[in-house]
Amino acid sequence: MLGIKTKLSSFLEKPAAIFLVLCLFFGTLSAIYVPQLSVNDEQMHYLRAYSLSEAAIQSTNCSYPQEVIDQAKGAPASHYDSNFSTSLNTDNTRGYSCGSATSYSPVIHIPQAIGIFFAKLFETSSGALVLLGRLANLAFYAASLYFIIKHVRVGKWVFVVVGLLPLMVHTAASLSGDVVNNIAVMAFIALTLNLFTQKTLLKKKQIALLFALGALLALTKSVNLLLLAPLVFLPSTLFKPNVKLKKLPFNIQKWSIGILLVVFSALALFTWQAAYGASTLSTPHSTQLTSVTDSIRILFNTYLNPTIGYTDFIFKGIAGSFSSYKYNLPLFVLSISMLVFAFALLVKTKEDSLLNLNQTKTLAATNALIIFMFTLAVSYAMYTAWATLPVIGGPGAYYAEGVQGRYFTALLVLLIPVGLLLKRYVRIEVSSPKTTGLIIILSSALVLAYYIFQTLWAFKDL
């Protein structure tokens, strides 16, 4: 009995372990109970992952087994049929649309493709293909974020809470390509935080990691390159001092690495585009935003105008809007998620002092600017490429329809420096780290349990 208490006490002090257990438990339930291909654009990700499982990356002249095509065609009409009883007939194939997900780099579909590949080795059913693809995506998400939480020096509990938001678990336990994007974003933010708290020179493996993550950011969503901005303010203690050109007002190594990183990331994006013949950048259908006044009006209508109410859709979508908006977290559950996020931001931890005041202020301001610029970029892209289409809002669209809350969820960890700054004026003190762990376990588990119950209720008639 004493051994169990000791292990439980130790577990409550381990943010990464808490995340892993809750994520895998509720994520597996989500992968099983959320109807197959009902998640946002999941049928398109399914087609892409299936093609990649056969080492095919083309964007035209795709072919699939008839049953796979039938699954993909049925999803938009809410025909979420899954077959676990008979093996997939891979001999009966025909040409079909490659799907809209082919415009993205294959890197975002690698976990799902691996799951589908192994499922096919055992000649399983089409339902098993989707389930194993989902579980592989979940395993990638859980393992990656576990590693991130374990190694990030500040804001561990914020990463845990954001990683356990129902939307993040819902997406991770699907075939969505957003999973790799979310990991890329959170990994780069964690690396940035660690570099700001580092007192020794930058290591070669850290430089290599910067370049790898920079390329991954570009290949997932080009707007993610905004996350490179804080690197401008990295402390000089990370870099070798100028030896021959001591009078230069800038550090040669720092700016050389920064410029090369931007170039390398951009080259990764453009190399993929050139090799594949497809663009990962939004192609505007309209250029209606011709003035600052127009831009402010669209932003106000999208995010603040109460008569339109699109704000509610975006806000719910950050934490809990599921299965192509079929059901959402109710306000009282959404409030719990937001309260536990605020708790994670403001709870006092022993790591808070790793960032000094000047670093905290710099990161808080820079990260706030990144969120603002990210919002502008996403709003412009969705307004010009989607909202102004004739079948949507037309050339005079009032707001940037198409902006979704899930685009911003992973960015919530950018608020860690803001929380550190606020803690200098108001903070939550708990009796021990175990108390923090217990509060986050209970609150996150409660919200996730409600999400699973809500899923079962939403699809009870299927």
What would you say about this model in short?
The protein is an all-alpha fold. The chain has a domain at 39-149. 58% of the residues lie in helices and 3% in strands.
SSE pattern, N- to C-terminal: HHHEHEHHHHHHHHHEEHHHH
Tell me the fraction of residues in β-strands, as a range: under 5%
Mean residue pLDDT: 91
Give the class from helix and strand content and strand pairing.
mainly alpha
Number of strands: 4
Instruction: State the share of residues found in helices, binned by percent.
Output: 55-70%
Strand order of the largest sheet: 1-2
Shape: globular
Radius of gyration equals: 23 Å
Give the number of helices. 17
Largest sheet: 2 strands, antiparallel
Gap between N and C termini, in Å? 45 Å
Quaternary structure of the protein: single chain
Stretches with pLDDT under 50, minimum 5 residues = 279-284
Write the layout of secondary structure elements.
Elements: H1 2-11, H2 15-33, H3 42-53, E1 62-65, H4 66-74, E2 93-96, H5 110-121, H6 126-151, H7 156-163, H8 166-172, H9 178-197, H10 204-220, H11 252-276, H12 292-303, H13 310-319, E3 321-322, E4 327-328, H14 331-346, H15 357-387, H16 416-422, H17 433-458
Antiparallel strand pairs: 1-2, 3-4
Helix pairs in contact: 2-6, 2-7, 2-17, 3-4, 3-5, 5-6, 6-7, 6-9, 7-14, 9-10, 10-11, 12-15, 14-17, 15-16
